[in-house]
What does this fold into?
Amino acid sequence: MTVNSSCFDERLNALKSPEFLSSLKQIKRGVEREALRIKSNGELSQAPHPKALGAALTHESITTDFSESLLEFITPPESRAEDTIAQLKDIHRFTIDNIDGEQIWPLSMPCFIEDESQIPIAYFGESNVGKMKRVYRVGLKNRYGSMMQAIAGVHFNFSFPDSFWALWAQLNGKDHSQEQTSEDYFSLIRNYRRFCWLIPYLYGASPALCGSFLAGKSHGLPFKKVGQGTYYMPYATSLRMSDLGYTSAEQSSLKICYNKLDNYVALLREAMGTPSSRFSQFAAGEEGNYQQLSRNILQIENELYSPIRPKQPTQSMEKPTDALVKRGINYIEVRALDVNPFSAIGISESQFHFLDVFLLSCLLMPSEALDESQLTEAKDNMNKVVLEGRNPELKLLQGGEEISLPAWCETLFAQFKQVAALLDTANETDKYMAAVDEEWQKVIDPAKTPSGVLLNALLKDDKDNSVFGLELAERYKAEMAGYAYTHTDANAFQAASQASLDAQADVEAADSKDFDSFIRDYFNEPPAKKNA
It folds into this structure.
């Protein structure tokens, strides 16, 4: 049986077969949650990454991102959302017990930071790979500033099982292959780009920020003030995703293509090999002076700021593009999520279920190739929603025509409900429909969005963002300390920490070349080609 590849209804009906329903139960998800460590007074911690948490270089579930103070918690792919939630709780419990009375900042936008120099860059030891990670972050600091790098987010990793892709290929009259799976993932990604304005609307939780974040920045945005030094925009949803946040003007000229894997990889590699006039001022290893890894638009592929990435797990020192070329897309990484401030672990179970619905819907919907004008339209819609998402007068562009956000949502949610019913049937639950209903309430009433709830709380009591964040941090510290270990107990975490420290020592002992040679060899490695 094959279907009309552009017909949502036919595809949806086909997925009701026992074989497809069985494969949908095996969808896997993982989470990467970032969070700043803070002192009890709400200031950024200056302490090194605690040794009790292990080595950031080699620990599988507890590491750091840009800063020594910016924790990153990672869970493995799991087919049950409940398992990932439990794993996150275990990690938070162990962490809060081992950071010497410090707390975890519960918001995406940073706490009060008087000066960027107070943000300590992450240290990964003295191995070549550890030094490379640090130099990359030094480059980020020089290129974009440390304050931007102190922003925290949540990444949602999502994959369909191979059994699903085999059925999907058959359904669409194609041969199942690594290449076809990658092509289908890109079909999903293109629709995600079209509709991803919905993510900051529903989950954006950064309508306000500490005045210290704006110091020295030219922005031209019509901020209002609340409390002693908090600035907000009345209808903003996610300032984290705005030009103030985790974005790069230098990359705005990149026309990254999401139509074919070959083109996507070629454009990324080109950006890594194209000199940047703006970044040429920083040394890139001359006479041992490393202010960045290279003078090019991208130091490495991970520097690309995008609300979604196609991913393939990398082997030791393998470039992400090489992994994609050799083995195709294994999963996608959704990167548009703010930290959920109303959850101690930064994300809720209902978000898992809605994101499943959203991403499966993106696959089922027609997905023509994106041209430059369509990609520009998608970016413009995203920018409008992060700054004005709750504005009742807001108009988005759909194929060049103006449409209100609620009107567009009405069409999307009609499809979401059908997909939720399908996933409920596959998983013998009612959680997917409940999650869609919960998100629909935010469309009906923007005040119910996280950004609306958070901003109303600040305005109601003329409260600063920093005060609100510290109150939540104190509450969540007690909540985390009360979690009962489920998957990994304290002894197992302690063993993992020691194993990671031993592994880092082994990596350092195994180095056989100087750092200059190591970096030169890394960038001179010929790009991988497709396996025969």
